[in-house]
Amino acid sequence: MKKSVLCPPNSPSPEFPGFLGTTSYPHVMYYATNISDKDIGGAPKRGGFYPFVIMQGPHGYIIQPIDLTERAAINKEYEGMLARLCTIKKEWCLTEAKGEY
User: Fold this and answer.
1) First-to-last CA distance in the chain?
2) Regarding beta strands 61-65 and 27-31, do their DSSP bridges make them parallel or antiparallel, or are they unpaired?
3) 3-state SS, one letter per residue, for the chain
4) Of 48, 50, 51, 76, which residue is 20 to 30 A from 61 by alpha carbon distance?
């Protein structure tokens, strides 16, 4: 299965208040109507390696992060594109990895 990543540059997120930048956070999303973090044993802290729910309610999703090995493979596969984007606009450069991100 091929996984893709949406990385809107400099987009604020309700899941990560105060963060504004470009990141690579490969994940799989499952449509999960009216499911909560409690229902799935979701991660207490967003951005790690455990699944969590976003937009809880009738249009919710479970986010299943990809492990570090696969993240590295995805970043390696797209390193040329990422480098070109970074030369076009500084804000499109990936932010430095901190903590579990």
Assistant:
1) 23
2) antiparallel
3) CCCCCCCCCCCCECCECCCCCCCCCCEEEEECCCCCHHHHCCCCCCCCCCCEEECCCCCCEEEEECCHHHHHHHHHHCHHHHHHHHHHCHHHCCCCCCCCC
4) 76
Task: Give backbone dihedrals phi and psi of 9, rounded to 5 degrees, phi first.
Answer: -65, 135
- pTM score > 0.70 for this model? no
- Residue 56 in tokens: 């809880």
CA–CA distance, 83 with 74 (Å, rounded to integer): 14
The tokens describing 24, both together, are 């690579």
Per-residue pLDDT of the chain (101 residues; tens, 9 = 90+): 444 444 454 555 656 666 666 777 889 999 999 999 999 988 877 777 899 999 999 999 999 999 889 988 988 998 899 889 889 888 788 876 544 44
